[in-house]
Design goal:
heterodimer; A: mainly alpha; two-stranded antiparallel ribbon; B: six-stranded mixed beta sheet; four-stranded antiparallel beta sheet; about 35% helix; globular
Chain lengths: ~350, ~260
């Protein structure tokens, strides 16, 4: 069998969603948007903080979704890019007094570069091997951040404390509420840009590579370039999420960015539906709230309860939130008929 | 000799010069040479293991010949990586179909235009005006090709669910979207029934006639090659066995021997 044929007959690593179904309809989008805008007006500051984290992790899951759902590459190393973003923001804010909003593009660009560079050696790997290589990155990152050499900047094991910004122009908003709306605006911007990207020539190149590398290359797609670009874009968005996370939590420390975070993000992507961008927020809600629910059910066995809940999701809706959305859509169509 | 060939003054569009491919100790291709002229349908035939697919993979740059050269309009293609073949006008289809199974028919064909368009991730993310203009022209072109190949009804279907014959046409549409000068077809008749094979043969001739695309047909379905090609090259054990019109090649004693075996064997 020729090399070409082998690739031709091999099933794609990721089962993908048709591109048209990658987003929500306008109506649903508006409802979700309205809920995201109005809810903070009626809840306590702690809930607002949790909603901010929901958006931030949502961005990180979205970034992984572009990489895995879009270009078909696995990563268990997203926590490393998240950490680089968080530290970039923290160091710029605390050592250089840069405005918090300006640190985010810098975090994004640095992480894009880091992801793009990491994507180069990763080109030779695929599937589980790529997952392992990124896993190594995630394991190494906390220790790199603790290195004495960087300690002057990173604060070593102690980490850095980040000042929470006030609302600008004397707006009558609490710090938490301002940060929430700030995060929401960035999230919406990145979401729209991501949808645009996946629907464009570049996005089609990503998906062509995911589905069949040899055929993509025969159509003129530079497979190496687009694979590394996907890594770069994914890392860049994760970096912005990391920067926002640093501001929201007001603290960065090496042990906040361990492999557990990377696995959580991976989990969030699967629960949200691989390749379905709106599912990212559902996946993010799962990784933020379900551990709390599990703890509410049993303090001593919260890990086991979380495991059981995860099992239930995998067995009942293996395609995650995307599947739930499809079922809901079909039900709605049926109800309309009756 | 076709009229197109005369108009080109005999300069071959594609020239295969003394190409040899060695895998370990096995000689898969041994000094094969032939020319392809503008507007020709060249059939490449031979029994299993004759080296057809090896030659095909050299043309699409998946294999590097051990010696010899391949010239497209007089320029060697051997220094080009596989993804830089589409832009010089070489398009291909795959044995057993290699579409993007999770994408719609339209998106598959849109990917075909990749080599003829340009963009960058920032402009794409922001959907800038020039990106929207490019997309509009891509969409128009894709619709034209789908109409040409009678695929409009399935334009928005996901390709993995379509019948095999339809998938083959989608693959042809994807290849046409790159405006190829030469179309390489790798065993297009494989998996098709008797009637479909001849419909496909007519379609290949129609594409050549109406779109002025030169076709290399690698096929072991003799009926299709003989009724479709105007020039045939026969390979066996990596060597060129015979070359000429379908009738000449069909009557060649060496070719008959290769396919049917000789009396003394």
């Amino acid at each position: 069998m020729s090399a070409a044929e082998e690739v031709v007959t091999e099933a794609p690593a990721v089962e993908a969603v048709p591109k048209r179904a990658m987003t929500l309809g306008y109506g649903t989008s508006l409802v979700v948007l309205a809920a995201l805008i109005l809810t903070p007006l009626f809840v306590k500051n702690f809930i607002i903080f949790q909603m901010t984290m929901l958006l931030i992790y949502g961005l990180a899951v979205l970034a992984l979704n572009i990489l895995t759902g879009g270009s078909g590459q696995f990563s268990l190393g997203q926590s490393a890019f998240y950490a680089i973003g968080a530290y970039t923001t923290a160091i710029l804010m605390e050592h250089f007094n840069v405005n918090y909003a300006l640190t985010l593009p810098v975090a994004g660009v640095i992480c894009f570069a880091a992801g793009f560079l990491f994507g180069q050696p990763a080109l030779r790997l695929s599937g589980v091997y790529l997952a392992l290589a990124t896993f190594a990155l995630a394991t190494a990152m906390p220790q790199l951040l603790k290195l004495g050499f960087f300690e002057h900047w990173t604060g070593g094991v102690q980490g850095l404390v980040v000042t929470k910004p006030d609302a600008p122009f004397g707006l009558p908003l609490s710090q938490d509420m301002w940060l929430y709306y700030f995060t929401l605006a960035i999230t919406i911007g990145i979401y729209i840009a991501s949808v645009n990207l996946l629907r464009s020539r570049s996005g089609r190149a990503f998906m062509a590579i995911r589905d069949n590398e040899i055929a993509a290359s025969a159509m003129g797609v530079d497979v190496s370039l687009y694979k590394t670009l996907a890594f770069g874009v994914s890392a860049g968005i994760t970096g912005v999420a990391g920067g926002l996370g640093a501001i929201a939590v007001q603290f960065v420390a090496p042990d906040g960015y361990t492999i557990t975070l990377a696995i959580s993000l991976f989990l969030g992507m699967v629960v949200g539906g691989v390749g379905w961008l709106p599912g990212s927020i559902v996946g993010s809600a799962f990784i933020i709230f379900v551990p709390n629910i599990a703890e509410g059910i049993s303090k001593g066995l919260s890990g086991a309860v979380f495991g059981v809940l995860l099992f239930l999701v995998i067995f009942l809706v293996p395609h995650g939130a995307r599947q739930v959305a499809l079922i809901a859509q079909q039900l709605a169509a049926k109800l309309k008929k009756n | 000799m076709t009229q197109a060939q005369l108009a080109q003054g005999h300069a071959p569009l594609l020239a295969v010069r003394d190409v040899s491919v060695v895998f370990g100790g096995i000689v898969a291709l041994n000094g094969v040479s032939f020319d392809m002229h503008q507007g020709q349908i060249l059939g490449l035939i031979g029994p299993n293991g004759a080296g057809k697919t090896t030659l095909f993979n050299c043309l699409s740059r998946l294999y590097q010949p051990s010696s010899g050269d391949i010239l497209m309009e007089g320029v060697s293609i051997l220094s080009r990586p596989p993804h830089k073949i589409a832009e010089i006008g070489i398009g291909r289809t795959f044995q057993n179909v290699a579409l993007f199974p999770n994408l719609s028919v339209m998106d598959n064909v849109r990917v075909g235009t990749h080599a003829r368009t340009s963009s960058d991730i920032i402009s794409d993310s922001l959907k800038l005006a020039w990106i929207r203009r490019t997309e509009a022209s891509v969409n128009k072109k894709v619709h034209d090709i789908l109409a040409y190949l009678d695929l409009e009804d399935v334009a928005h279907s996901i390709v993995s669910g379509l019948p095999f014959g339809t998938q083959k046409r989608v693959e042809l549409a994807r290849a046409l979207a790159a405006d190829p000068k030469i179309l390489l077809l790798d065993e297009p008749a494989g998996g098709l029934n008797h009637e479909e094979v001849y419909v496909l043969g007519d379609l290949v001739r129609k594409i050549r006639d109406e779109r002025r695309i030169t076709v290399l047909l690698v096929e072991h379905h003799m009926g299709m090659v003989m009724s479709t090609a105007d020039h045939v090259v026969a390979l066996n054990f990596g060597r060129k066995l015979a070359e000429g019109t379908p009738a000449q090649v069909q009557a060649d004693p060496d070719v008959i021997k290769a396919y049917l075996g000789s009396k003394d064997q």
